[in-house]
Amino acid sequence: MAEIAVNHSGKDKSVCVIGLGYVGLPIAMRAVERGYTVFGLDLDERKIALINDGKSPIEDAGISEELPRYPFTATTDPSIISEADIILICVPTPVDDLHMPDLGPVKGATDFIAKHAKKGALVVLESTVNPGVSEEIVKPILESAGFVVGKDMFLAHCPERINPGDKKWSVKNIPRVVGATDSIGLERAAAFYRSIVDGEIRPMKSIREAEAVKIVENSFRDINIAFVNELAKSFDQLGIDVKDVIRGAATKPFAFMAHYPSCGVGGHCIPVDPYYLIERAKLSGFDHRFLKIAREINNSMPAYTVELLQDALNSISLPLQGTKVGVLGLAYKPNVDDMRESPAEDVILALEQHSADVATFDPHVLRLSTTKTLTEILERSDALILTTAHKEFIESITPELLKEHGIRVLIDGQNAFDREAITAAGIIYKGIGR
């Protein structure tokens, strides 16, 4: 067999990013900024057209501003993979309605690579997966096409870290970890990320350890959020303001990290990643009871929020059935249009199951809002549930405005409003644990 010319670390010049969403798009732009020739691959023709026109397909001020400065070729044609020294898999890894991991997008991206990649290419899986996916799923697909991983194809994992809407931390400076199946792949992957990221790049001893890092990060957050959500339910019965208690506990300068309760946990990571570990561990005969309980608690919060509304309405002799309820927010976090795993969806579903007359408004997701202005949703609502603490809501909604529009109940699913001021205006206020 002829000797294969391999681009070792420092010699990789071209990058193909598969999946141009919240993870792939900013990293593609960053690679352009740092001098790489970049190609982008996505199956969404609308997204491709916007990117090639210099327009961001997602709501992000930084991306919208920088995309025209750092353009790259985006396409739906997977043959573009053959042009790349480094191939990044940045596709989503969702769970289905039964919380089972869906690795279809990862498998599809790997199939494209197996068919089109050149020998010597470095494949880096950025998508969040459970430990073992790189070796048990990605590697066999590549080798089924005739590649020998570790010899004429190199495989690494660098779990994505992105926080949409965060002006301080981005793909440019968030520290990363990287693992690989062999030393050459690790060297090349670490060299690539050090060339585009200003933060620390930490090599891991194995690719499985790298996969486990992201699962641990987000399971940690899920568990701590579940703890304070359970406290919120308990303190609500005890007449204790959980938000004030957490702020008090946070004055301790060590061994405490403040997390706050809400109407539910959203985003592509925290409500998804624990299931990847739960299901993978189950195959190995281990039962993650703690993780499952945390997921159960956090999944219960949208229904609990609606129960708070029902109790508040009952106190003024109003049924939830037929009451006009306005839901403020569809996105999973403030000031973005990202709806992945948003608890607002489950809040709306619970309201509809109780036959409430539901209207929605999100200034960042107008296309799916049933009302198009804040005034419109206030005019047609008797009660409100805040599901997303967008600045437009926090800055505009006052007790006087609520009273002017006849709002009788406000359920603050993010504990974002001034409880005392709203109560003083004669409006029933209920937060999560306050």
Overview of this protein structure:
α12 links the parallel β9 (324-328) and β10. The protein is elongated, with a radius of gyration of 24 Å. The protein contains 16 helices and 13 strands. It folds into 2 domains: 14-207, NAD(P)-binding Rossmann-like Domain (Rossmann fold, 3-Layer(aba) Sandwich), CATH 3.40.50; 215-434, Rossmann fold. 40% of the residues lie in helices and 13% in strands. α7 crosses α9 and α7 (207-238) crosses α10 (289-299). It is an alpha/beta fold and 434 residues long.
Strand and helix map with partners:
Layout: E1 14-18, H1 24-33, E2 37-41, H2 45-52, H3 61-66, E3 73-75, E4 86-89, H4 104-116, E5 122-125, H5 133-144, E6 154-157, E7 176-180, H6 183-196, E8 201-203, H7 207-238, H8 242-249, H9 273-283, H10 289-299, H11 301-314, E9 324-328, H12 343-353, E10 357-361, H13 374-379, E11 383-386, H14 391-396, H15 399-404, E12 409-412, H16 419-424, E13 428-431
Parallel strand pairs: 1-2, 1-4, 2-3, 4-5, 5-6, 7-8, 9-10, 9-11, 11-12, 12-13
Antiparallel strand pairs: 6-7
